[in-house]
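ARCHIVE CARD
Drawer: 12
Card no.: 0347
Subject: one protein chain, sequence and derived structure
Cross-reference: see card 0346
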Amino acid sequence: MVYVDGFVLAVSQDRLDDYRKLAELAGKVWMEHGALSYVECVADDVPYGELTSFPRAVQAKEGEVVIFAWITYPSREARDAINAKVFADERMTHSHDNPPFDGKRMIYGGFKTLLSV
């Protein structure tokens, strides 16, 4: 079963084009280094919950949209090797100069597949 890295973060609407450019670069780099898929989604129907919600989870502020993204890999071992290559890739080093989001509010983690239909 595939291994998945998942991400949830908030991006200011006025920086969404900057984020798209970063995501296009990141997707290209991850795929070149062996990821099976790379997906970035912009929230369309994510109400602000009373106790929990995607906007609450990333402390989304007025004028920010929630991004939900994931990358798939053949295995955890492949993910670790691919990520090492991605983070060493020179194309990714400048992507951190002026990021279009606050990395401190990003939620991320690796997941083993439980079910895939």
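Annotation on reverse: The first strand starts at residue 3 and ends at 12. The chain has a mean pLDDT of 95.
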